[in-house]
Structures are given as structure tokens and as C-alpha cells.
Design goal:
The protein has 13 helices and 13 strands. This is LacI family DNA-binding transcriptional regulator.
Length: 351
């Protein structure tokens, strides 16, 4: 509630009080007398709109006209991945919708995930943007690229998987500890009896995968000690390697009670399970948990190969990250910040 009498004419003074700025600031913005910081202008615009100020439309036009132009860069993985393509679309939409800037998104995808290649791509993309967000493994070479861009005045955000360099501008993504423990909870609660459990990882260099695996093991050790967690199956995010690994697990471990896909390659895992069930219709599949609701994981839930999917709310992640990147280009918030988004849990019955 504004506390103003209904029908009462809203004054400039009321707008200034609601926005927490001086009357002269509102006057400068309304009459375009002098520039006003974009974040300040946005506060004035929001206050004017909230109060129903008669000239709120003019203030909105002034705000829009003086918003700084910003190019935000995003370096994502695997152009063929439905998850990263969907994330790219959400990021592009968030940049366009961000009210504090006139934004343009530059989104690139990487196939070669070697530290040298990723670092080179970061420096190349960073040369043409005002801020950069990157999905990358935690490697000294990546840290050097972050530091070089920092020296050039380009803030770099770790996306989905954190980086250890202190010069990163922040992190945006899920709480990997909670994801790992949640995956272990589902498997140990849904499995018909104790037995072996497998974990698929893309690479240990990604902090998110490392932390999720550690947390998975910690939960099992603490709450389900009768289950045995096998050594992780490395997929290098390859569906072919993941399929090969799942076939090998089913052959070697008839007491396999569950699996957790903590990385790429889910398509291969699902394909291997379907093939095994075709070969043996009486086969009882292990309990499966994976990340990110996509067309593939949705089909896995519906087909019975997966029992739970732990997903990231992509629109929320994109909007929060873009807002923070825009602020960083204005020099707001020099201290690195963590933007942790909640986990969405999907089961066959919640689709």
C-alpha cells in the first residue's frame, strides 16, 4: 500500500520519496535535464508506476532512452544438447527483457572442452562483450583467462559449475550438494532392496559434478550404509561411452539397484536400458535419477527408465544471472556473489 488517499494527485515529491531519491533527481529524469544512473532511473520508474503517477509513461520513455547499451556474452557447452540450447534461448530472452540495459546477447557453444580451448574461447568472446558467463571446468588455465578478462574490465561469472579463482565476478547455478544428496535419497528410498549403485560423471574437473558425487556418497554412508556406491563411470559427456558403461554395469552387477547420471550422456544411458529391457522383458531396471528436464529425460520418466529428474528452473536462473551481469557492468556489487537457484523435482506422476 502506498498510504496515499485514493484519487489524490501524485506529486513529484511522492515519487522521489517512494524511490528513495531527491526531488531534483526525479526532475532531471522527467525533463531530461541531465543523465541519471540507470539503476537510479529504474527505481524512479518503478516508484512512478507503483504510485500511478500521471507522467509515469514519460519517465518510462526517459528510462528506456538512457539505458546503457550492453553486450552480454555466454559460453555454453555442446551445441547439440537440448538442455544447453534451451538455456541459450532463456538467456537471450532474459537479456532482451532486462529493464536496466539495452542488451544484446552473444551466445556461443563449445565442443572442445580442453582447458586451453575453453580459455581461448573465453578471451576471444570476452574481447567483444561487457560481461561474460561461462560453463567451464575448474582448471588453472581457465582461472588465468578469468584474471586476464578481469584486468580488462570484463567481469566473468561461473555458470552452473563454480570456479575457484577469487577474481570471478560471481556464480549462478544450483546447490550441487543438495542435488547429490537428493539423488541418493531417491535411490535408497525407492530401491526394492540394498545393493550396488552407479554414478555417471562427465569429468571430475567440473566442481558441480565433483561436489554432487561427494554429497551422494556422504548421504549413502550416513543414511543407507547397506548400499555400495561403485567407482564413477566416466562418460566425457559422450552418449556412446555412457551407453557402453551402462551395458557393462548390467552385465557385471546383477544386484545393481540404482544409478545417478551426474553429467552428460543421459541419452546413451537411456538407450542402453531400453535395449536391455527389449532383450529381457522380465528385467527389473535399477532406480534411475538424472539432471534437467528435457525431451530425453521426460521420455525416460514416462518410459520407466528414470524415477526422478532434478532440474534447474532455467528462466529464473537466466533472469537472475542477467540482472547481476548488468549490475556488474555498472560497477555495482564489486564483491563476488552466489546466485543459487532452487531445484525442481520431477517424477513420472508430476509431468
Amino acid at each position: 500500500m502506498s498510504g496515499l488517499t485514493p484519487g489524490r494527485r501524485i506529486t513529484l515529491e511522492a515519487v522521489a520519496r517512494a524511490a528513495g531519491v531527491s526531488l531534483s533527481t526525479v526532475d532531471r529524469l522527467l525533463n531530461a535535464r541531465a543523465p541519471v544512473r540507470s539503476d537510479t532511473a529504474e527505481r524512479v520508474r518503478e516508484a512512478a508506476e507503483r504510485l500511478g503517477f500521471r507522467a509515469s509513461g514519460v519517465i518510462e520513455q526517459r528510462t528506456r532512452g538512457q539505458r546503457p547499451r550492453r553486450t552480454l556474452g555466454f559460453l555454453l557447452l555442446f551445441p547439440g544438447s537440448s538442455f544447453y540450447r534451451a538455456l541459450g534461448r532463456e538467456l537471450e530472452a532474459a537479456v532482451e527483457a532486462e529493464p536496466s540495459i539495452r542488451g544484446q546477447a552473444r551466445i556461443e557453444y563449445m565442443e572442445d572442452l580442453s582447458a586451453e580451448s575453453v580459455a581461448a574461447r573465453m578471451l576471444a568472446l570476452g574481447a567483444g562483450v561487457d560481461a561474460l558467463a561461462v560453463v567451464a571446468a575448474d582448471h588453472p588455465r581457465i582461472g588465468e583467462a578469468v584474471e586476464q578478462l578481469h584486468e580488462r574490465g570484463v567481469p566473468v561469472f561461473a555458470l552452473l559449475s563454480d570456479l575457484s579463482t577469487p577474481l570471478r565476478a560471481g556464480f549462478a547455478g544450483p546447490d550441487s550438494r543438495r542435488i547429490g544428496r537428493s539423488a541418493a535419497w531417491f535411490i535408497t528410498r525407492l530401491a526394492r532392496e540394498p545393493g550396488r549403485v552407479a554414478i555417471f560423471v562427465g569429468t571430475h574437473r567440473f566442481q558441480c559434478q565433483e561436489l554432487a558425487e561427494m554429497s551422494f556418497r556422504s548421504f549413502v554412508r550416513e543414511h543407507a550404509p547397506r548400499f555400495e556406491v561403485l567407482e564413477p563411470m566416466m562418460t566425457l559427456d559422450s552418449p556412446a561411452l555412457a551407453a557402453e558403461g551402462m551395458h557393462a554395469l548390467l552385465r557385471r552387477h546383477p544386484d545393481l539397484r540404482g544409478f545417478y547420471v551426474d553429467g552428460g550422456g543421459i541419452e546413451g544411458v537411456l538407450a542402453a536400458l531400453r535395449e536391455a529391457r527389449r532383450d529381457d522383458p522380465d528385467l527389473v531396471l535399477p532406480v534411475g535419477v538424472a539432471h534437467d528436464l528435457t525431451a530425453q529425460t521426460r521420455a525416460g520418466l514416462m518410459g520407466g527408465e528414470l524415477q526422478a529428474v532434478l532440474s534447474i528452473p532455467r528462466p529464473l536462473l537466466a533472469s537472475r544471472l542477467v540482472r547481476r551481469m548488468a549490475e556488474a557492468t555498472e560497477g555495482i556489487g564489486a564483491t563476488p556473489t552466489s546466485l543459487v537457484v532452487p531445484i525442481e523435482t520431477w517424477t513420472p506422476e508430476s509431468l
